[in-house]
């Protein structure tokens, strides 16, 4: 397992370099740069600005300088958020994005598993149809629509939660719920399918024959195996939750990283955009690695070497 | 089994830990006043920002020589308690208050002002607003650095510093006389400067290069060669007196020095922490009504009332939160649930509903301000080089249709470039007739005279706009109007902001959308854009008479005559129509009825130091400007001293 992790680390470094290189040249290929402003600047000022940000050098020279900075651990200053370094932006936003993401994931897992297991166990009943109908709707609806409905109901009608903002647990509930809901829907469908497969296996029949109670059969014997596909879905789910939080962050005014990720690219904030791209690469890479590890951990039949 | 239990145990633990991490140390007392400040600001360094969200924060943190009256926007004493103006309108002598203090308790001195204005104008600061300071004598030449130098000028040569020096420090200065400029090609120049009877040849180099390489023989490296700052009309008479000499009498100068880019910053703080380190809340020293309390990117900026501000007894808010929220619907949601007290703009669909409310809402009152939305015509291209075509395009435009169908807040159809409302100025309107049918008939005639009867043979034109839904629907409607009335074929084209801007600068367009918000309440902020070759004039149009009128207005000391000159210039502009005005902006603030001291005004600028909360109040200055005057807030208009 250690050998695998080391190999993964090597690949991650390579991936980071490739991602950095491609993003670097893509960013500079679009007309929007860090210097574009609301008004036309006099050519002298423009020249000085270009010099300040090293944009008067050749792209290759800029690339060499940037790469050097990043290798020495310096992500630089944000071009657009003048008062902050990229590291500070990440330091402020990452905990917020991570906690929102974790809560969304917790919602997704809890709601998804309950719905999936219930539908599998009560297959063909009204429960099954109802949950699966909800799940299909949940996958089909984009999360800003869900957010709009939730705000109408829980903010304006019931006044249970604040409309937007960040600072207390009440602020987290709605956004995490809206962010997690589409994933809950997917998880419920995956867990239903795998649960149905497992429930028809021989060892479940054996367990039943031995007189194990129905709850114990489902919650212990069957669930353990049925969880494996859900765990492997967690990798893409975490990726989606982390990168897909933009809309939810905007609607609920949450100071996480999702907005920076998109805004930095749109506004031509070269340094911040590079920082975000690298951060997301590392995050996604390590999430996938964690999922693989836990997969091996949960299912001893799978060797970490394969 | 124990494995899966362990796995889910770990998962739960990770969740709890990350929640704890997010909420640690996050207990803040509620603010007295909370408002939505739209986008995240670029920074709080007065010299380096522009844009109205930045303005709201910087104005609260820093105070210039004058302030603006919250309703009339007339200049009122700020850190300068009084001033004298010479008879020719060129020399301003400002007397600073004895009690104008920095937030660290030290005095704000004339030296601080000189330092700050030099920094604002200095080319290495890269202040986008520096051009506003160019009305000061020689300031333009100072800002433009070596490109403005001539042989014989008195210059200052700034020496290089070590690479790791604090980035706001200046290198040692050598003052001398420029005796020769050698063109080295490739934009490089060498400067020979005579100092103490000795001539030295200077070459500009980055600090890093200056250390790495030896300079060529007989030469020395320097950071830059500038016009000697002592030639610029800014001087410290004594620690409380500042004298500013202008290029030409600038009627709005007192107003200008109250604009936030002209605010002082503290040299000690800036040079100790460097930029942007000095703007961190633990480092920043400011001199305004508020200090910087807390800042979280894309969340909020908390402002705390300053206990060193000279007028602190009249500042009635103790804690103000400015939220950075870009989604306008979210802002409305927060306003409706009483989480915020002021929002700057309301999305059009909500606005339409709210303006129809019966009885009318007591917290919404759109009002015109100095902003104009217009189309530029590329007068270097056929057939737009023909005045008759440009006039036909303007006449065929049904501006009423645009404002009534597409815009919700009562935007005003624009027939001039300068919006109404500037005291003493009568905006000059372009040609229109009393009915739209007559306009169209005249437009068709003009087009026929230009050689395109019923639009025949008229080349296809495109309308360029920066990608945005509102601009798109306006462009589409105008396309329909022109096609319908003139029989010409039009298409629309959108580009992202930067691409759109560079297309305009390089004149790769036929018709392009633009807008301008006045920097100060004077026709000059609109009209000086269209002088021949002006930075914002991307129409290819130029008229020596127009240039002369703008120049004469700049030199005119009689305010009446000055306005007449501007009127004449605008009349010329509206006859020749290198631009077609479309509509004037209106402000779209929503302000709770208990917020007092908040006025609609011409620049949609609302100083926080004048606002207070009165929970009993059912009506306020915002919707009912006539209600009682605010208690003594030192708002008396400045009395000119003899």
From TrEMBL, chain A:
Bilayer topology: Multi-pass membrane protein
Transmembrane segments: 9-30, 103-122, 134-161, 167-185, 226-248, 277-298
Domain ABC transmembrane type-1 positions: 94-291
Primary localisation category: membrane
GO CC entries: plasma membrane
Cellular compartments annotated: Cell membrane
Alphabetical list of CDD domains matching this protein: TM_PBP2
UniProt keywords, alphabetically: Cell membrane, Membrane, Transmembrane, Transmembrane helix, Transport
PROSITE patterns cross-referenced by the UniProt entry: ABC_TM1
Biological processes annotated in GO: transmembrane transport
Family per similarity comment: Belongs to the binding-protein-dependent transport system permease family.
Protein name per the record: Oligopeptide transport system permease protein OppB
Record organism: Adhaeretor mobilis
Gene name as annotated: oppB
Automatic annotation (TrEMBL), chain B:
Native organism taxonomy: Bacteria, Pseudomonadati, Planctomycetota, Planctomycetia, Pirellulales
Keywords from the named record: Signal
SUPFAM superfamilies associated with the record: Periplasmic binding protein-like II
UniProt cross-references to InterPro entries, sorted A to Z: Peptide/Ni-bd, SBP_5, SBP_5_CS, SBP_5_dom
Coiled-coil segments: none
UniProt GO molecular function: peptide transmembrane transporter activity
UniProt-listed GO biological process terms: peptide transport
Organism: Adhaeretor mobilis
Pfam family, one: SBP_bac_5
Domain Solute-binding protein family: residue ranges: 74-537
Stated name of the protein: Oligopeptide-binding protein OppA
Stretches for region Disordered: 622-642
